[in-house]
Amino acid sequence: MPLRSTLPVPTLDLDPDAPHVADFYRYGDLLSDDESAALRRLRAFLATEVAPVVEQAWDAAEFPMQLVKGFAGLDLAGAAYTDPPASRVFLGFLHAEIARIDPSVNSFYGVHTGLAMGSIHACGTPEQRERWLPAMARMEQIGAFGLTEPHGGSDVAGGMETTAQRVTSRANGDEWILDGEKRWIGNATFADLVVIWAKDTDPDADGAVRGFVVPGGTPGMTVEKIEGKQALRIVQNADIVLDQVRVPESHRLSGGRGTFADAGAVLQRTRANACWGAVGTQMAAYELALSYATQREQFGRPIAGFQMMQDLLVTMLGNVTASLGMAVRCAQLIDDGHGSDAHSALAKEFCASRMRETVSLSRQLVGGNGIVLSNGIARYFADAEALFSFEGTREMNTLIVGKAVTGHSAFVR
């Protein structure tokens, strides 16, 4: 009998009707019956369609495109933009559920439903919303979000190099010519629509930053997948080069203020979603560690019975519980109209920091077996490093909160 069969394999409970052991304070009880039913349908899909393919997809750094049809069948992609919209608490749990199975798949979903659809909803005109959002809600068209640049991450607001020049011709009317580069753009290799943010070159525009919906395959837009990633490998991040890309005036998101504040408003809401991704990742790390500890025997008994192992598990569970509590309250504040950028920033900073510790402790408990992909935790351990940095680094989020609590800006200009 091969040795592999004698080793414990940590697993997640994929029963869609079973409460998560990581939700120790039962925050899931806050959901309505309809919301709980929708999450059970999502869990069933994640268990049968997503969980079986993510390990191989992560190893191959490929996105399993067959999942798009399954997500579409859940009819949840447009839930944030209905009238009335779904609650932020429900939407948060949705992201946590997906991230619990795979953080990369949650990133794909968040880019499409949060960043891309959110940009069009927040900054588009009523006509633009009607033109693009219904098809995106049905996931017939997949979106991407082009903000970050090779030379501009945290400083992209003030240092954006991608430009938009307005031109007029008899043949085409008002158009915009986009030039520049974008980096780390998720979904870009297969996106049907890419929201590109660019600085207006008109001297009278005073450096205004405008959003444009650029269809995939538009002449002059080159998309190249970023290879060699060691985190979120399923996400198809890409470099985008824009060389004299022409888009009509009708593709400019003209329903906003025409400043970087438009992009900032979208990021505020998706930053709150990012904390839920950190929660789901922690939930998985804790559950895998608990599963392993109850199976793995050393010195004649399961390691779950040793004080040091219990200390690790309780620390992980405390991190998950505190993060989930903060995520829930942040979502409630947004629902009630009291949520601020500082609330989202603190939630993202705290949850991502606790996540980093939790996945590390989980890997520590599983020992050397924790670096093997088939044991699960290695994937979450690696993915957590990307989640820790995106949607605002820890340092940038502390500056946002620091300004809110002190009244003094420490941002470098």
UniProtKB/TrEMBL annotation:
It comes from Pseudonocardia endophytica. This is Glutaryl-CoA dehydrogenase. Residues 144-245 form the Acyl-CoA oxidase/dehydrogenase middle domain. It comes from the Bacteria. PROSITE patterns: ACYL_COA_DH_1. Its cofactor is FAD. Keywords: FAD, Flavoprotein, Oxidoreductase. Residues 263-405 form the Acyl-CoA dehydrogenase/oxidase C-terminal domain. One of its GO terms (molecular function) is flavin adenine dinucleotide binding. One of its GO terms (biological process) is fatty acid beta-oxidation. Coiled coil: none annotated. Residues 33-140 form the Acyl-CoA dehydrogenase/oxidase N-terminal domain. Belongs to the acyl-CoA dehydrogenase family. InterPro entries: ACX4-like, Acyl-CoA_DH_CS, Acyl-CoA_Oxase/DH_mid-dom, Acyl-CoA_Oxase/DH_mid-dom_sf, AcylCo_DH-like_C, AcylCo_DH/oxidase_C, AcylCoA_DH/ox_N, AcylCoA_DH/ox_N_sf. SUPFAM superfamilies: Acyl-CoA dehydrogenase C-terminal domain-like (SSF47203), Acyl-CoA dehydrogenase NM domain-like (SSF56645).
